[in-house]
């Protein structure tokens, strides 16, 4: 754990008690360890995006864009999200990918380039996951009931759209399946639901224990197949 992360763990929080990646880092002291770590994490994510793009090229495949609705909602989320939503959403996505890639990097039947990128991502995301978890808890504790209710709903929507788009329809088409029928079958497949539940078990426990999965928002988690059958 480097000095910047030690600052995070020790609570070197900027004025106002929060830090939301690039957004609030922009408004705070760049000489603080906390802000420097936020910028380091942003740089890490940029490198990871390039790494995965290069892997896609190496495999002779192509990148598939998310559907227009999810893309539009992502832009809204980017504009309106605050601390618990940013870190809760990041924690959800990163925890699921971490669990999945830990299996992939040890599976000798998978292409070496996929195993290598998975291993790199698992190693480097470990500190990101810890950072997101710490920041979520720190920010969640100071939020009032109205803000928490809003956050629960939006986190549920984020979880739903993320979990229901783990496999792009065009991937099914690429292997000779009818995309619409394949998605329908997968959505109802108990083993697929069990897999998503298992992949998200740790982050669901973290957020649920904090009280971030309840009310209407919880319905989205269940509809996404993240709370079991």
Report on this structure.
- This protein has 229 residues and is mostly helical.
- It has one domain (3-223).
- The chain has twelve helices and no strands.
- The relative contact order is 0.11.
- Mean pLDDT is 87; it is low at 1-20.
What are the SSEs and their pairings?
Blueprint: H1 3-9, H2 21-25, H3 33-58, H4 68-80, H5 83-105, H6 112-140, H7 145-163, H8 169-174, H9 179-188, H10 190-199, H11 201-210, H12 215-223
Helix pairs in contact: 1-3, 3-6, 5-6, 5-7, 5-11, 7-12
Count the helices. How many? 12
Please state the average pLDDT score: 87
What class would the helix/strand composition place it in? mainly alpha
C-alpha-based Rg, rounded:
18 Å
Shape: globular
Compute the number of structural domains: 1
Q: Spell the H/E element sequence.
A: HHHHHHHHHHHH
Bin the strand percentage. under 5%
Number of strands: 0
| Approximate helicity band | over 70%
- Biggest β-sheet, characterized? none
Low-confidence region ranges: 1-20
**How many angstroms separate the termini?**
39 Å
In short:
This protein has 229 residues and is mainly α.
Keywords, please?
73% helix; RNR-like; mainly alpha; oxidoreductase activity; disordered N terminus; AurF/CmlI; Ferritin-like_SF
């Amino acid at each position: 754990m480097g000095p910047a992360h030690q600052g995070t763990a020790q609570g070197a929080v900027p004025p106002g008690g929060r830090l939301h990646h690039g957004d609030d880092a922009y408004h705070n002291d760049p000489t603080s360890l906390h802000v420097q770590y936020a910028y380091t994490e942003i740089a890490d994510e940029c490198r990871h995006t390039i790494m995965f793009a290069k892997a896609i090229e190496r495999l002779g495949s192509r990148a598939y864009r998310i559907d227009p609705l999810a893309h539009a909602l992502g832009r809204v989320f980017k504009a309106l999200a605050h601390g618990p939503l940013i870190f809760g959403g990041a924690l959800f996505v990163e925890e699921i990918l971490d669990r999945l890639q830990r299996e992939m990097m040890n599976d000798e039947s998978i292409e070496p380039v996929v195993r290598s990128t998975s291993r790199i991502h698992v190693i480097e995301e470990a500190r990101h996951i810890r950072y997101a978890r710490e920041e979520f808890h720190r920010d969640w504790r100071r939020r009032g009931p109205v803000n928490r209710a809003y956050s629960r709903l939006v986190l549920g929507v984020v979880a739903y759209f993320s979990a229901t788009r783990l496999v792009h329809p065009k991937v099914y088409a690429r292997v000779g399946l009818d995309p619409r029928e394949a998605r329908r079958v997968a959505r109802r497949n108990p083993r697929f639901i069990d897999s998503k539940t298992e992949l998200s078990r740790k982050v669901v426990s973290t957020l649920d224990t904090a009280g971030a999965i309840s009310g209407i928002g919880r319905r989205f988690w269940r509809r996404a197949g993240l709370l079991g059958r």
